[in-house]
Amino acid sequence: MRLSILKDKINNNQGLQDENNTIDNVDTSKAVIDLLIKKGAMEPDFNETRMRDELLQIIAAGVETTALTVSFLMLMLAINQDIQFYFTPLQQKVHEEITSLTIDCNGLSENDLTNHLRYLEQCIKETLRMFSPVIVTSRRINKEIILKDNKIIPAGMFVATFIHLSNYDPDLYENPQKFDPEHFNDQAVQKRNKNSQLSFGYGPRSCIGAKYAMMSIKTQIAYILRNYHLSTSIKEFTKEHLTMDLSIRSKVGYPIKFTSR
Fold first, then answer.
1. For tag attachment on the chain, is the N or C end more exposed, with fewer CB atoms within 10 Å?
2. pLDDT by residue (tens digit) across 99-156?
3. Is residue 13 classed exposed, middle or buried when 0-12, 13-18 and 19+ CB atoms within 10 A define those classes?
């Protein structure tokens, strides 16, 4: 991203020097770039170069994680042809849900369409459970925390949360080694603690792009499955097939065959 683009955006942005500008009254409905520019107006040290670096980090993180999730989901749909939802094979169920909305959408907007793809969303969440791009996160403790067993986490300590381990906890997910979208049906979700799935984090420090990522993945998979049937030569995919660098990846790649419908 060129700095000249940011400078043009800053020059066209009105009212940034208003005396009422504070962190507390930032309009969170605005685009990220607008929020960064407003932050720059309030904090002179937050210059165009730092704004650009923040934007590039957000863009890179979003593209990397959504691309990996789409790849893993396509691989799971291709491998798990035998999973059935009320006697309908998994991939066929997702395809039918997509085509039912796109054929008879009753005036729904694109955003409405993605919001109505409920079973596809279960498949995405199950993919994120098994192959969360971020496998560990950490937080600095601001104040002392006393746990249920009276152990104490002192203020100032950094605590790591191993998302990958909790995603495979058998106390949370029945048969966690198996790809099963029913882990995220309404009944199953209600039984679990709302903090049990942390692929996007939770609370005020959760992923700012979570909703966009979900909509982007739904849109991509909907386009693909509407036009192609997915298959693969891989018979089984286990955690031994995974590797880790910046994100979790497949050691064997994503060998998927696309057959026109």
1. C
2. 887 655 555 666 666 678 899 999 999 999 999 888 888 888 899 999 888 899 999 9
3. middle
